[in-house]
Amino acid sequence: MFAANGVSSSAIQVYWTNNPGVPSSKNDFSGSLTYKAAQNPISVEAAYNGGSIIHVLANLTDGTLYDYPFDLSANTFKSPHLISSGDPVRTTLYPGTAGVSAMVGLDGTLHVAYWTSGNHVTYTPFTYDPVSDTLTPQTTPFEVDSAGHASHPVLAVSPYDGNTTVAWLSEAVTPHQVLGRTKTSVGWGTIEQVSDPTVKVWTYVDPYGGVSVDQGPSLIITADGTKHLSYIEDVDSSGNYGRVHYVYYTSLNSWQDTRLNYYTHDPSLATNRNSDVYLFGHGDYLDTSPCGSSNDMCYLKKNADGTWSIPHMFATHPNGETFDASVSTKWSVVGWTRPELIEVAFFSGGASNYWNMSLYYGTLGG
To answer: Where on the phi/psi map is residue 333: left (φ > 0), alpha (ψ -120 to 50), or beta?
Structure first.
């Protein structure tokens, strides 16, 4: 597991197990490392190549984006590789401002989508040679959006056909929306309307804090090529923001947007080898028991008929902590070990602030 070490720290924390099998306690994570980046990480993203390297990408508070290859054979980082500079800078209360998303494709290409200057979203594919520790761009950087005012990029590679899809928040349109674009073997398609254009997607820019820190979007692609995305809506008739929307796309139709009867922040999607779809997120007082508190972590499962289950409790918060947090779910198109098991990581905040954080690991299924 990889995580930024809270606010006002340049450290990237790494934890690993030294024995095979599913971790059952924190003692199983007996390996650890603290790596000091050049500046404080805003986002930390991990992409696995199916072999000996995990690409750990972080956009930093000085406007740079680096790839830090982590060597699994030695449990050490190799040399950092600068991918981009002059990117947006956030220096205070920045965690939650998602700025980079990456995945390794079946052919070994490292696909990276990231937040760049002018509030654009840029995509670059890379080839990595672990012997020479060389990261080489396959093409020049490509600006995925066209109008700017874009943030929170999310990328997924399809296990069905190898196509790459990037989605992002767009504040260039009113109401604010989630847009997307897909790259096939013949190149990039047109910009797609992902969210329902009549729905106001939640966005927020705090001049002293982060950019839309409670928003996703979250994107996965299941084995049949179906794309699944989640996001949250702005304030609705209840007077609250955070109502979850689930959007899916198959080759036979356009994006289909469904409003769920659930409120959370940064809903995160997960899948297993049966292409079941789950949604993780903390509860909300508007939700029914047992998920009526933002302090607890819950999940919903998509039913075979397209409806969704009632919320289920996943983790009850310890005394003095809150799981009012984002969830990172394990999913990849290469090196996807234990696909029958959903594995997640999330953090807790202290009772009075988010500077005293703990990192949690959990599983579902098996």
So the answer is: alpha
> Distance (Å, rounded) from C-alpha 180 to C-alpha 189?
10
Q: Which residues contact 20 (CB under 8 A, 6 or more apart)?
A: none
- Which residue, 292, 178, 184, 181, is CA-closest to 246? 178
Helix (H/G/I), strand (E/B), else coil: 18: coil
pLDDT-derived band at 207 (thresholds 50, 70, 90) equals low
Where do we find the tokens 């980079």? 100
- Closest listed residue to residue 170, CA positions, set 190, 194, 189, 187: 194
Domain assignments of the chain as residue spans, ordered by start: 2-365
Q: 349 or 71: which carries more pLDDT confidence?
A: 71
DSSP β-bridge partners for residue 57: 45, 67
Tell me the CATH architecture of domain 2-365: 6 Propeller (2.120)
In degrees, rounded to 5, the angle at the alpha carbon of residue 41 between the alpha carbons of residues 24 and 268 is 50
Largest distance between two CA atoms of the chain: 57
Q: Supply the DSSP symbol for 57.
A: E
pLDDT tens digit string along 254-278? Answer: 899 999 999 999 999 999 999 999 9
Q: Using CA atoms, how far apart are residues 266 and 292, in angstroms rounded to an integer?
A: 17
pTM of the predicted model as reported, rounded to 2 decimal places = 0.95
